[in-house]
């Protein structure tokens, strides 16, 4: 179970990183002034001029007396990150506000049901990092997760996908309770009923689709019941989905759905790309196509940025730096005229058996920290030298201003991982690892330099104009040097793929005794092999997307993900040590990467 703990900022960390109190707050406060290094026991917390309708707050501490104003919830969350284990804090003045008014996180409970207790834990974590929107994806192909009194067959297991938590749904009482729980923590819940797409269960239950005339009658009664049970006063937004579907009358369906939602006093949100929304509907932009998202921000109307990418799609170690280097809402300087902020999405397309794996398999916690930082701070003022960022999947040189900013943020994540959380956060600082990489192609013999514990080879080739489209699949040879002051053993995680927790496109588990993806590892010219026997060698090699296919029902296991496995103890000698990797691309369509993380 996920709990937060709040303990001492260590003296060692203070000495290493200077004014550590400011540097360890996530997200970073706009203005922070510390008066001396002395700390004092908290004597009293005085709240005055409280206004939780705004994100702005101030926090002033004077010899243990703490004065807060503005948003009391966010001020107290900042205070929690300032207090040491003895209940002491320094004298500080903090004045802070968010760059964007909506900073959200989304769970897909339509595909994989999560208990109310698990969702409460997520909401607690969100509040700690000043997220203020919980996007609750309640329906998808496998099931309708909302109690339905008018059509109880929507909750009947016989119409839901087998093995996908059949019969499990949230009662209206539970939904109201979770909404109120979130409100007390500064979070607005945005429920989503995806329509008319992502609704296989609906057609199975009624024999017709949502967008048909019969379907709209049924759907209209379901929505009316929901709006009656969940009043607009506690649920002002409603998400209608609308993506990944082609229907005969898209404009007509959207006007019908939007009108119904607005008549019930709600603000409408829909996916973009999706069916065509009206100008007053908030668009949640999600497309991965290069350049399309920045262009989508130029359309009229308000929008939310979900084009930073999905937690379930990227390597979770790489996603942290990707989110930190992301240009929120495609704006160098925040302008909230139309840009409302962003929502970080976690889609669990593949069936999950142990729901605790949703966080671990997708690097949820570290990813949330980076997303919270980017959308609270906004812009690029905190990443001086943004010109060093060619692409957010390509880490900047450590000596650049952007590289220094990323390394400093990694230290904050590491501190939170060690001091504020009592659950595993499977992430390690990695931005400074330098690689010399040669991509073996018919016309290429010059190595390129890259940085990071995870190297996105597809993007690296793209930004370096390395053509890998030839008939023969390319292979990468990567080298890094590690200096050790003594003979020692270090733990290292090696990986040659990070399979998406959505499409399942993957080269699968390696042969017994070998790395996945036909990868090879050499340290000081000695070849090293996986530290454990594979339980399922050569399984799960799917060179196609598995959406709505039987393979989608096979849950991921830990050994399919290098960050979930045991590390390899690596013997280093005193002096310089060379790590050499061979990482071939196995098939077209594979997300080509390799990973090396040092504990």
- CATH-scheme architecture of the largest domain: Alpha-Beta Barrel
Separate helix tally = 14
Alpha carbon gyration radius: 25 Å
CATH superfamily of the largest domain: Glycosidases
What does this entry look like structurally?
The structure is a single chain. With 599 residues, this protein is an alpha/beta fold. It has three domains: 31-96, Chitobiase, domain 2 (2-Layer Sandwich), CATH 3.30.379; 102-308 and 324-338 and 346-383, Alpha-Beta Barrel (TIM Barrel); 433-598, Jelly Rolls (Sandwich), CATH 2.60.120. The protein is 24% helix and 24% strand. It has 14 helices and 25 strands. It has helices at 11-17, 20-23, 72-82, 116-128, 172-183, 200-206, 213-229, 250-263, 292-296, 316-325, 357-361, 364-377, 401-419, 457-463, and strands at residues 31-41, 44-50, 57-62, 65-70, 88-96, 102-108, 133-137, 139-140, 143-144, 188-192, 237-239, 267-272, 282-285, 303-305, 339-346, 434-440, 448-451, 454-456, 475-484, 488-495, 520-523, 526-528, 568-572, 575-584, 593-598. The strands form five sheets. The protein has an eight-stranded parallel beta sheet. Strands 17-16-19-24-21-22 form a six-stranded antiparallel beta sheet, covered by helices on one side. Helix 4 (116-128) packs parallel to helix 5 and helix 10 runs parallel beside helix 12 (364-377). The longest helix is centred in the last third of the chain and has 19 residues, at 401-419. The chain is globular. It starts with 10 loop residues before the first helix and ends with a strand. The model is unreliable at 4-20 (pLDDT under 50).
